Amino acid sequence: MTDLRFLQDIVSDGQEAGPNGSDDDEAFDAYSKVVTRVAELVSPAVANLRVWRRIGAPQRVEGGGSAVAVTTDGFLLTSAHVMAGTDRGIATLVDGRELDIEIVGTDPLSDLAVLRVQASDLAVAPLGDAARLRVGQLVVAIGNPLGFAGSVTAGVVSALGRSIPTRSGSTTRLVENVIQTDAALHPGNSGGALSDSAGRVVGINTAVVGPGLGQGLGLAVPINDASRRIIGSLMREGRVRRAFLGIAGGPRPLPPRVAGAVGRQHGVEVVEVVPGSPAARAGLRAADLIFEMDGRAVAGMDDVQRLMDGSAIGRRVDVAVYRDGVRQALEITPTELST
Predict the structure, then answer these.
(1) Is 81 an active-site residue?
(2) Euclidean distance between CA atoms 218 and 303, whole angstroms
(3) From 43, 66, 110, 190, active-site residue
(4) Which end of the chain has fewer CB atoms at under 10 Å, N or C?
């Protein structure tokens, strides 16, 4: 269901237009109802986080952000950077409870973290699917920077397919398919929910874009198949294992002859191969066009990253590439990504 239809459906039967009888008055009221309804659904699940970071014994500095309850028995989802350098903290719920947080696991390379509090009756927010979002779609950002009630802003998805760099130790990674929105975000909203018009969490607010980079825009890590697997790993094991290939690349349309031969339109162009990496040892080169990996089509680096989970570590992976107009088959054995 599109947002427009959703807006139309929730307008009360028999509602009168504004004093001028204009459609604009009616549309504005419908918009207000959507935002209000989403806030009522999601805000009870968004907690305020207060954390204390070590900056050298015995000094500590207080920081914070927001978190979203995803299970009734105490699991919370937030941004990894909110928990960076933290050894303790408190989650304040909208009902006034203040609960000590346990850090279940953090993954700086996806900027996601899972926390737990001792509770069995949390209000939860359902997780949606960012893959279904469209540019121009209404989204509502909900954070809890003060700990008393949710801070609500609304806007639209202004761009999709963005990426942001993350770092853990000496390892860097791009978080793919980040959501860009013009809903106003503030630092205290990091870790809070970006919801669609049905009240489903489609992103975790992660960054505010400042002057020179697009003032007034915010970014959110998407909730999709890849991030769901990350969240599951953090909940089960407290960490995320990733396979390492050693390439940098990006999506590229396949040449017409190649596209016709393989039956698809896009692949991944290798931009750089890390010396000594599994990809380098297997003979992968810059300018190679990868169109299949482990028997599956790849059209972007998010497809590659999705395949490079813990199950690929130490296992032979067949890679199909086009090089100089000729199809070639390579075998790569990924190693575990160290952070």
Answers:
(1) yes
(2) 24
(3) 190
(4) N
